[in-house]
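Sequence, please.
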Protein backbone atom coordinates (compact mmCIF):
# COMPACT_ATOMS: atom_id res chain seq x y z
CA UNK A 1 0.00 0.00 0.00
CA UNK A 2 1.22 3.48 -0.84
CA UNK A 3 0.82 6.27 1.69
CA UNK A 4 1.85 9.74 0.64
CA UNK A 5 1.27 13.39 1.32
CA UNK A 6 0.10 15.65 -1.47
CA UNK A 7 2.71 18.37 -1.64
CA UNK A 8 0.36 20.67 -3.50
CA UNK A 9 -2.44 20.26 -0.92
CA UNK A 10 -1.22 20.78 2.67
CA UNK A 11 -2.77 18.32 5.08
CA UNK A 12 -3.96 15.90 2.39
CA UNK A 13 -3.20 12.20 2.69
CA UNK A 14 -3.91 9.46 0.18
CA UNK A 15 -3.72 5.73 0.73
CA UNK A 16 -3.98 4.33 -2.77
CA UNK A 17 -2.59 5.20 -6.14
CA UNK A 18 0.08 7.81 -6.72
CA UNK A 19 -1.64 11.19 -7.07
CA UNK A 20 -0.16 13.95 -9.17
CA UNK A 21 2.30 16.11 -7.27
CA UNK A 22 3.30 13.34 -4.86
CA UNK A 23 6.65 11.66 -4.59
CA UNK A 24 6.34 7.90 -4.01
CA UNK A 25 8.95 6.06 -1.97
CA UNK A 26 8.04 2.40 -2.35
CA UNK A 27 11.40 0.64 -2.65
CA UNK A 28 14.33 2.35 -1.01
CA UNK A 29 18.02 2.26 -1.63
CA UNK A 30 18.63 2.52 2.11
CA UNK A 31 21.73 0.93 3.58
CA UNK A 32 21.00 -2.04 5.85
CA UNK A 33 23.69 -1.81 8.53
CA UNK A 34 23.25 -3.65 11.82
CA UNK A 35 24.81 -2.58 15.11
CA UNK A 36 27.59 -5.12 14.51
CA UNK A 37 28.46 -3.44 11.19
CA UNK A 38 29.26 -0.10 12.84
CA UNK A 39 32.53 1.15 14.32
CA UNK A 40 33.42 4.23 16.34
CA UNK A 41 34.54 6.92 13.91
CA UNK A 42 32.65 5.46 10.94
CA UNK A 43 31.36 8.32 8.81
CA UNK A 44 28.91 9.04 6.06
CA UNK A 45 28.08 12.34 4.37
CA UNK A 46 25.98 13.69 1.56
CA UNK A 47 25.38 17.08 -0.01
CA UNK A 48 22.17 18.65 -1.19
CA UNK A 49 21.04 22.12 -2.22
CA UNK A 50 17.99 23.59 -0.50
CA UNK A 51 15.95 25.34 -3.19
CA UNK A 52 13.03 27.76 -2.87
CA UNK A 53 10.71 24.92 -3.92
CA UNK A 54 12.01 22.75 -1.06
CA UNK A 55 11.20 25.49 1.45
CA UNK A 56 7.70 25.90 0.01
CA UNK A 57 7.08 22.13 0.08
CA UNK A 58 8.35 21.83 3.64
CA UNK A 59 6.13 24.74 4.72
CA UNK A 60 3.12 23.04 3.13
CA UNK A 61 3.96 19.66 4.64
CA UNK A 62 4.72 20.96 8.15
CA UNK A 63 2.12 23.71 8.28
CA UNK A 64 4.85 26.14 9.42
CA UNK A 65 4.10 29.03 7.10
CA UNK A 66 5.80 31.64 9.25
CA UNK A 67 6.58 34.66 7.06
CA UNK A 68 10.25 34.30 8.01
CA UNK A 69 10.25 31.16 5.83
CA UNK A 70 7.87 32.13 3.03
CA UNK A 71 8.18 35.93 2.62
CA UNK A 72 11.59 37.27 1.55
CA UNK A 73 10.58 40.89 2.18
CA UNK A 74 9.48 40.04 5.73
CA UNK A 75 12.82 38.28 6.35
CA UNK A 76 14.80 41.24 4.90
CA UNK A 77 12.97 43.65 7.21
CA UNK A 78 14.30 41.53 10.07
CA UNK A 79 17.91 41.73 8.91
CA UNK A 80 18.26 38.59 6.80
CA UNK A 81 19.34 38.52 3.15
CA UNK A 82 16.44 36.30 2.12
CA UNK A 83 13.79 34.03 3.62
CA UNK A 84 15.13 31.20 5.75
CA UNK A 85 15.14 27.42 5.53
CA UNK A 86 13.17 25.85 8.40
CA UNK A 87 15.39 24.47 11.16
CA UNK A 88 13.16 21.42 11.09
CA UNK A 89 14.09 20.95 7.42
CA UNK A 90 17.72 20.56 8.54
CA UNK A 91 16.53 18.10 11.19
CA UNK A 92 14.80 16.16 8.39
CA UNK A 93 18.13 15.97 6.55
CA UNK A 94 19.67 14.46 9.70
CA UNK A 95 16.81 11.94 9.73
CA UNK A 96 17.56 11.18 6.07
CA UNK A 97 21.19 10.45 6.96
CA UNK A 98 20.20 8.05 9.74
CA UNK A 99 17.30 6.38 7.93
CA UNK A 100 18.97 5.99 4.56
CA UNK A 101 22.69 5.66 5.19
CA UNK A 102 24.08 5.44 8.72
CA UNK A 103 22.80 2.89 9.63
CA UNK A 104 19.89 2.92 7.16
CA UNK A 105 16.76 0.76 6.98
CA UNK A 106 17.41 -1.04 10.28
CA UNK A 107 17.47 2.27 12.19
CA UNK A 108 14.88 3.41 14.67
CA UNK A 109 15.51 7.03 15.62
CA UNK A 110 15.13 7.20 19.40
CA UNK A 111 16.35 10.71 20.15
CA UNK A 112 17.60 13.68 18.18
CA UNK A 113 19.17 16.82 19.62
CA UNK A 114 20.10 19.68 17.31
CA UNK A 115 21.38 23.22 17.75
CA UNK A 116 21.59 25.78 15.00
CA UNK A 117 24.65 27.97 14.44
CA UNK A 118 23.55 30.11 11.49
CA UNK A 119 20.49 30.76 9.33
CA UNK A 120 20.30 29.00 5.97
CA UNK A 121 19.08 30.82 2.87
CA UNK A 122 17.51 29.24 -0.21
CA UNK A 123 20.07 28.05 -2.74
CA UNK A 124 22.57 27.03 -0.07
CA UNK A 125 24.29 23.72 -0.71
CA UNK A 126 24.61 21.91 2.59
CA UNK A 127 26.81 18.99 3.62
CA UNK A 128 25.28 16.60 6.17
CA UNK A 129 27.84 14.45 7.99
CA UNK A 130 27.21 11.66 10.46
CA UNK A 131 29.93 10.07 12.59
CA UNK A 132 29.43 7.09 14.89
CA UNK A 133 30.42 8.32 18.36
CA UNK A 134 29.15 5.58 20.69
CA UNK A 135 28.00 1.99 20.42
CA UNK A 136 26.14 0.04 23.10
CA UNK A 137 25.63 -3.69 22.78
CA UNK A 138 23.75 -3.70 26.11
CA UNK A 139 20.87 -1.55 24.79
CA UNK A 140 21.56 -2.19 21.07
CA UNK A 141 21.95 1.46 20.17
CA UNK A 142 24.39 3.88 18.60
CA UNK A 143 24.97 7.61 18.96
CA UNK A 144 25.67 9.36 15.67
CA UNK A 145 27.11 12.87 15.77
CA UNK A 146 25.50 15.11 13.16
CA UNK A 147 27.14 18.14 11.55
CA UNK A 148 25.52 20.27 8.89
CA UNK A 149 27.79 22.77 7.14
CA UNK A 150 27.66 25.07 4.16
CA UNK A 151 29.25 22.86 1.48
CA UNK A 152 30.94 25.85 -0.16
CA UNK A 153 32.39 27.67 2.83
CA UNK A 154 32.34 24.81 5.38
CA UNK A 155 30.75 27.24 7.84
CA UNK A 156 28.83 25.37 10.56
CA UNK A 157 25.05 25.58 10.24
CA UNK A 158 23.79 22.97 12.73
CA UNK A 159 25.09 20.18 14.91
CA UNK A 160 23.68 17.53 17.13
CA UNK A 161 23.42 13.89 18.09
CA UNK A 162 21.08 11.12 17.06
CA UNK A 163 20.50 8.11 19.28
CA UNK A 164 19.57 5.18 17.09
CA UNK A 165 18.09 1.82 17.98
CA UNK A 166 18.00 -1.13 15.62
CA UNK A 167 15.10 -3.11 14.22
CA UNK A 168 15.22 -6.72 13.14
CA UNK A 169 12.93 -8.56 10.77
CA UNK A 170 10.48 -10.80 12.57
CA UNK A 171 10.86 -14.42 11.61
CA UNK A 172 7.14 -15.12 12.13
CA UNK A 173 5.96 -12.29 9.88
Amino acid sequence: MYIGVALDRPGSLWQRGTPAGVIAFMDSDAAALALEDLAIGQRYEFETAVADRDIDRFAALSGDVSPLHIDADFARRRGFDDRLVHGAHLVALASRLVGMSLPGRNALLLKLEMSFAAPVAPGTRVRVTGTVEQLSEAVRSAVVGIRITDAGTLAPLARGKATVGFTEERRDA
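Confidence is low (pLDDT under 50) at residues 1-26.
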